[in-house]
Amino acid sequence: MTSLSIATVPTKPFDGQKPGTSGLRKSVQTFMQNNYSENFIQCIVNAAEDRTKLVVGGDGRYHNSHVVQTIIAICAANHVKHVIVGQNGILSTPAVSALIRKRQTNGGIILTASHNPGGPNGDFGIKFNTSNGGPAPESVTNQIYELTKSVTQYQIVKDLKVDVSKLGVQTFDVSGNQFTVEVVDPVDDYLQLMKEIFDFNAIK
């Protein structure tokens, strides 16, 4: 297995990267600026108390696939050991929450702008949920915001490309450390949870 190297990329802060309870929502074109998404993702990772295992997925809107790969590559460079990602980068917000709790991860990064319009001229968003499955509290989002105001670099494994279309576990050597990406069905675990909560036969 070829060992992948970590790159440190110099950057500078962007104004206005203050997340609300539903994360950082901006236009797609804003997120497509050079280093914009990378800065915010690095600050999320820096703010996480424990970053051993994270869930990643989004609602599939424009720019989702690119940012999923960026998150995985930044996680790999920042000593995250295990990333669980929805197949094709897709996971609904409640599905991410369910996976965080079921798999006892340290949190999850969700790519969504909720009800805002999508498409290349629409909106995009990055949200962080903590280990209880819920949105990051204000204490965490404030910490992320403070970090965005002074960030000078981010770390990324530029040559890491993960096939998120294929279910299963993929392992990589990143500077001598094993990095695991697990691609899961976007619905299975959430559906199982719903079956435990609701009597679908009775509803039918």
TrEMBL record:
One of its GO terms (molecular function) is magnesium ion binding. GO terms for cellular component: cytosol. The keyword Secreted does not apply. It holds the Pfam family PGM_PMM_I. It comes from the Eukaryota. The keyword Isomerase applies. PROSITE patterns: PGM_PMM. SUPFAM superfamilies: Phosphoglucomutase, first 3 domains. One of its GO terms (biological process) is carbohydrate metabolic process. Keywords: Isomerase, Magnesium, Metal-binding. Residues 17-154 form the Alpha-D-phosphohexomutase alpha/beta/alpha domain. Transmembrane segments: none annotated. Belongs to the phosphohexose mutase family. This is Alpha-D-phosphohexomutase alpha/beta/alpha domain-containing protein. It comes from Medioppia subpectinata.
